[in-house]
Records
---
Amino acid sequence: MLSIIIPAYNEEKYLPKLLNCIKKQSYRNYEIIVADANSKDKTRQIAKKFGCRIVKGGLPAVGRNNGAKIARGGILLFLDSDVQFDENFLKNAVNEFEKRKLGIAGVYIRPLGSNFVDTAFFAIFNLWVFATQLFYPNASGSGIMCRRRLHEKVNGFDETIRLSEDMDYAKRCGKHGKFGILRTAKSYVAMRRFEKEGRLKIGFKLLLSVFYRIFFGEIRSDVFRYNLRYRK
């Protein structure tokens, strides 16, 4: 079984779109776990309506770890609540994951919409994670697939990390299992943060965070003032 784990906070606008994508999948052997961080809107009710299991959430790392604790599946799929994909996403992801005998994997991510700057930004990101996958694993919370035994071996996501905990998770798991970027599975991401805070500002923060991690280690303070509980 595949356990899909989604951290969420006030996601009544985006969560139904993701859950509808999952509902339409050709692959059916899955469960959905929503880690709700005390949402003030209808997030929890929406999750119940779609038959999701619900656990207590928090910041993304906490929600993902809490979801993994009750997961029944041998493979975990961590998704952000504002992504979408086509009806063969799960089938393609699981088939490639098993065929390549991966322990952990990321997916290619694309922007929702047709803005040229967004497309260029994600093209650069995809090129970077593909080029570095053999020696410096990186994966976005927009789509991380991992074997449950590997997740447990590394004690899950590091809840003390403020930013790029998903990248750290991929790096640590990659030391104990084979890492790869799935070529057949693409996740489409809502650009709400870029639109709200400004593409240049967010892009610059994320670029700086890459160099910060390389030279100073994981980001455990709010040095980049990145709001993890983002909503719009």
Note: Residues 199-216 form the longest helix (18 residues).
---
Amino acid sequence: MTSWIDTHCHLDAPEFEPDRDAVRSRAAAAGVRMCLLPAVHAANFDTVRELAHRHGDCYALGIHPMCTPQAVTADLQLLDEALARQRDDPRLVAVGEIGLDYFVPGLDEQKQELFLREQIAIARRHGLPVILHVRRSADRLLKHLRSTGLQGIAHAFNGSRQQAAEFVQLGFKLGFGGAVTFERALQLRRLAAGLPLGAIVLETDAPDIPPHWLYRTAQQRAAGEAQGRNEPAQLPRIAQVVAQLRDLPLDELAAATTRNASQALPRLAAIIGAQ
């Protein structure tokens, strides 16, 4: 069976509370050998670590830009301390999910940037790559990242070709997930088809960003049709879309994206090698 790495999956989300172990079992049965579980705030640092160890996955610790309204500066010290405490845990592979979100209204941009700057400094201090949240903020994020020497993954990338090239030049891989399955996502599909193969990793962002076969329009939701919950078992089908866009054999895409994830996250390579 072809095997896959889901480089972004929020398995700790409350949507998975009723059947979390079954969700991960379905993913394994579909060929998803590894999920990366990023934290989003200090309160779920322990949860993602415990889940990663329970299922043989890996995890990242960080404070999400959408969680900055509730975050306090003391949370940055908690992050630093948690990374120091878990420094010898091979399943801790990155600092994340961190970044900037200029799409959601009402978020304090200055506070977001403060938390981003501090978490970049923490990642450098601990020698870890970063998992980036990039939503309408690519240019600003690039400004913060230049000269840091950091690498990692720009999750759910949806910027321009020029922005993509600069992230790649800095040493980042770009995450593609359910959004690429929509035919109307023309720019995103052009990126998935045209970027160097060495620049791409795959993700679900489960339970969010459902692929088109799970998506419900606002009209359908108003009529009572439930939104389909995304889960990591969807990754192979998402990968089929990317493979078709690139006219690439599925096994070749699996091998390349696994290799790319390992390059972005060196500790992940060690886990895969041990498996």
Note: The first strand starts at residue 4 and ends at 6.
---
Amino acid sequence: MSANNLTLKRLEEYEAILLKERDETRKIIKGIDEIQKQGAKNCSGDLSSYSLHQADMGTDTDQAEMRVYLLEKEIEKCKEINSALKRIYEKSYGICQICGKHIPHNRLKIVPYAKFCIECKSKEEKNSKRRI
């Protein structure tokens, strides 16, 4: 498989987009991580940071769980971006990993780290919903 439908210039454009998106994702990860660390420091004995009301404690817990969820999503996105960059360097970027067809430019513009064409992604999502 090769990315022969993509010119060298287009590959360089996607590489720049992916590198920028990876930097932004890393900043988000760092921000969430810093908030988590601040929460951990505050729980180390500073009673002024504790919620006194049960509803407030529940809200604090919900927010912490949401941060963990967002952190996991951003880490996964970073992995997908790194994988896409690897495909660029290996000259297999823009090719569906299931059917081997070229991923349309319109899809790559929206999801530059896409590894499946729209049809295969739809099938994969349907199959994963059935397993749940």
Note: DSSP finds four helices and no strands in the chain.
---
Amino acid sequence: MGIALALVALITGCERRPRIEPPGPGTAIREVAAVPMKTARQIAFLGTIAFVAQNLEGMTALDVSQPRNPRMVRHFGPSEIQPLHICPLTPDTLLIADRFRGLVVWRVKGADDITSVASLRLPGMLCHLETFTTGGRTFAAVASGGEGLSIVEITDLTAPSLTARFLHNADFTRQVAVRGRHAIVADNKDGGMKIVDVADPAAPVLLFRVLLPGFCDALALQNDLLFAAYRNYGTRIFRILTPANAADEILTSQSVELLSQVVRSTDRVRNVLPLGRLLVLANDSAGVEWYDCSNPSLPVLIAEWRAPDDVMSVAERDGLLYVAAWNAGVRVIEPARPGMSRELLRH
């Protein structure tokens, strides 16, 4: 009954719309650097190296020790790697969701000292991954495109092994976020979001689905808030409700509450990045948008920036935003609004 009531509340809450105010004075955004490259899709940092996933074009390593003068130090061609998502695991290890090769493990001692440790072919087109630990063992939850969710044990990085698969009428699984014993899955099917119990990685169990219009493309968690991009339906902000007697178990009650929905344009929200009270959205041809989510029930637009091409994702490092802007390459931008850079550093 609790689950049903939670879902009814979600569906009825869909009618609520936050009031979006125009940016105030002084909300300029400065572009401080640009690195040309094709099909920049996602950026991940390992120390002072930024790795840029470029899909069929391979991957590029940038030296960002001087962020206003990033330097391209190495390009990995598609014959070596074709990443859709890069996930730093340790200070010298990358996990890579390769479009065709599956899950790939690289050891990185420097841009010129990279070793392929292992790879594991998995079903589907690998789009995204996130790691978690349970029972002293480490796993990767992998969004496997048209083949649902794959759970891979990576306790021994030299020998990753498929532990389980979760399908449950999956259409195209794009992203996954893990907190505690639960994986939150972004999928095109059935309103786009599934909550899966992975306490036993060998037997993932569907807990419930969130039935709202739109295809869920991206997810991010921050404290008790869940941010989900629903393509042309904008971004929805949920609160995860946890009972008082289960402080260590997020989502134990299997309920979430829809707080607000941000729909500013018909462009496709591809990536969500919460930074403290701020929410940064990668909104395709609409560019990058900043929202003040001090009150998550009423997000307020405070700044925006248009890229020369479609914005695929954003990443933050030392108060600067690194924008993967498809064929416009990587753009480094800095909020010029008083106090905004400090807020990024404070998150």
Note: Helices lie at 2-13, 340-346.
